Fold each of these.
Amino acid sequence: MEKGKRIMFLADINSVHTERWVKSLTKKGFEIHLFSLSSKSTNWQDDCSDFHYTCFGIDHSTVRTEKKYGKLSYFKARKDAKNMFLKVNPDVIHAHYASSYGMLAKHIGFKKTILSLWGSDVYEFPNRSIIHRLLFKRVVRFPAIVCSTSKDMAREANKWVNREFRITPFGVNTNRFTIAESHSSEIVTLGTIKSLENVYGIDRLISLYSDFRKHYSKESHLKIYGSGSQKDTLKQQVLDLGLSDHVKFEGYVTDDALVNAFQSLDVFIALSRRESFGVAVLEAQACGLPVLVTNVGGLPEVVSSETGVIVDDTDPSKWTKHLLGLVDNNNKNESQQASREFVQENFSNEVCVEKIIQVYQDVQGI
């Protein structure tokens, strides 16, 4: 194995982001050894060479809990993680997510450690209690290099820990997410692909669509892909607004069906109340879709003036006007290409993986 190419991942084996990083890095010649707190519930690992993994086996619900003491079982995994480190003897440790895997990395204590911040570990975890805040500070101060998927998240983390943060976004497979060969329906289809939770503003999307229909004379539909705790409340909202014949809840979309879901839309909308980055917005643009997003979190970083509209989160009165402008765009072909080129040049897998590889090279020189 070439020196500098053996990486120990501390990450959730079931995360689609872990899957994408592992596949991209092994294709670049890296050997990845992953330690996951969760038990394996997916099969993507079977087709991945130069990839080895160990699962500690904590129940998935425990891993995702927000209870103050719900993650104490993490501490029981420290011995196994340290033993794996000693066995693998990696060139670099790369921990993904501060409030769990970052703690394991801190316990291992390897000098050449990288920590990637993902989202709720920054926006939520430090705010839960003084104990959570102290843990966050300890974990984020330790690594040689700390990465953030967005500039906004780096600014948020900097409120607690004053240090440099590298911006390393999640990449998009632009060979997979492509413009549909044909989409000639006369019916305008708006939509989103997000979890049905309050933070993602699906209720705001439904209200926007209701107002949009009052100003748009042609036929239109709204597709909502995703599952979550707000499903019944959102369906009742649709019923109360008299939109049942025009709004369709498509349910959870599998990874295999994701591209087709994007390609079924004419405009992608993300009216999130909080968002650390915006992978779905990038995937939509890679498929040639114009996007409408709120100016929160990392969303403004993944949209350009040529690919969509960033609306004021606090002023819904202007959202309909901007949406009508996207729908009535007469230069659809040019818009599609601009959206796709923006992602290819700034957020493709190739671009983002090279940023991580540069971080690996830098940490080994420390």
Amino acid sequence: MRKFEMQTDEKEVRSYIEELRKDLFLQDISVDLGNVNECARYASECRHCADCKGLDFCLNTTKGYHFVNQDGYFVLEECDFQKEQVLKSKSGNMVETLFISKALLNANLENYDLKTANRQKIFNYIQTFIQHQKNHTFCKGLYIYGNYATGKTYTLGCIANELAKNHIPSTIVYFPDLVVELKNLMGTEKYAELLMYLKEVDVLILDDVGAENMTLWLRDEVISPIVNYRLSEQKPLFISSNLEPKQELQEHFQLNKTPLERKSAQRIISRFEGLYKGIELDNSSYPR
């Protein structure tokens, strides 16, 4: 892009103005001696943006911004790539991850596999859930279950990121590692702090429930208090599991075959059901 100084020969400037006037990007913009540099920058950046592949390839004077003409004045405006990056940054702050790869934050509901009826149900349910959250009305989360390698964890990542785009904070946790951490923290202040955090977070997302070794302590001192609190405070819960949400999950919580244990397991299942709706996830070609 050429830049003209005050001492530049006027004939040379006027010749360049004629070149600019022929430019496709300047057909609706008046070019004169007073704005020739701004018009030249505008034309140059329009050409850059037309072929741009992303922020890493930006050739404009201010990366991520381009000149636009508003009512005869040139102003800087964010490009779509810059807006997307800012949105991702804000969204990232809305999702906390515990014991799970942050790479999951790249999961995107816009690219979600909708080839089956159940996957369409999940997609539609999240839109309904988000609307309830915006209206400050309670809506159950989801219990997403199915065989290994069907994309359950990826689905949870999609859900967390979609919530973040709508400014709804959530925490996604790999449950087996959480159990190990709680065991290590027993008897410390951090144990109580972590337990309270899991109770109070706006939207709690637990991945791979059922893969842990169930114990009396875990069921009655960890899971039950979290579920009871969240149910009473109407705080949604999302879960992924290989276990079917009624019989198989109940068997997981039932430590032996006695009637008392069966009732204890049934009790926690009934409270879980107040927080989520079960949907089976079938096969997907997306990353796990």
Amino acid sequence: MKKIFSLSLVLALALLSTFPTDACTSAIFTGKATPDGRPLLWKHRDTGELNNRIEFFPSGNGRKYGFLGLVNSPVQDGEVWYGTNEVGFSIMNTASYNLQSENADFEDQEGVVMYQALGSCKTLQDFEKMLDKMKKPRGVEANFGVIDAEGGAAYYEVNNTEWRKIDVNDPKIAPEGFLIYTNHSYTGRKDEGMGYVRYNTANEIFHKAWIRGVNVTPQWIFNNLSRSYYNSLLGIDLNQNPELAPDGWFVDQDFIPRRSTSASIVVKGVRKGENPNLTVMWTVLGYPPCGIAIPLFVAAGKDQPDYMLKSDGYDNCVMCDETLARRASIFPLSRGNGRNYFNVGMAQYFMHMLFPLEDNNFMVTERMMEEQYKKGSIDKAAISQLYGEIQATVPQI
């Protein structure tokens, strides 16, 4: 009976499995919610372009600050979909579907806004001034998550003509020091928008962990949010109970990792007064259950790991290509509605295979960062040494 019930559930979900591709899950954790007092900015990206890579943008050519950014591999000039700059300003977005009050011919400019912000902003106040000065309509309907090196942490709900700040440091708004956003805005039209199940799922996962006194770290976020197969509406967790997937298959509906997921990134910022060059951009390219987290530093400039960058004569990067190749085993069906199903067993196989490699990346990085925090700064030699240690694990993936 259990299998019959599960199969009925899968078939019912299959009828619902359509969703916007630009539909991300995100969170800001202030230092109040983390073990070392340093903020975390998480974006789990869902998009129609699965080929993503990292690019370094130096200062100059209209950019006041150099920055690292997540871009689509067939890159559109002047667009970034997550990033952090040399003065510790970091920004990401989620699409909102309940902010716009009118149809707009000018839209989808969120990547342009983030590119401009990374090149010109140091603080939240700089970003607010930038929003005010932008020509209207802005061409956006989004929630922008921002942290800076001065302790600022906020979401901005932005449409063509207005913006509203949701301050994560305000105890009346975020008493536990964190906020989660998916694809609706708190100040938008009630009960419209998208991502409510994912929002509840992420909130529930975190609150249960919070009660247990968990340390919220980038690694915890990747393992417990980016790779979670928990659905809060159904009350099922396929990682804990894979037998709920009939013959290993389940519908790709309302889990945080989805067919449309292209990357998951956590920026670990700095405490107020620390050197912003200590900021770490932990990056998983591709579908997180079969990807691996790599630490990146703006302070390394253009000398980033080559497997995260554009390949010679080829727009894509090696890391994303490798992850997408593994992902094909998780989403092998393409005929009819087959694309709406995923192979739970293959997802778990890759997670178990890759976890030891990723554990090593976190171990060597945390060991190195403890030394750099004591020094108060990080130099390119230390970053280069770390990149070299991690490079040794890359061929194994």
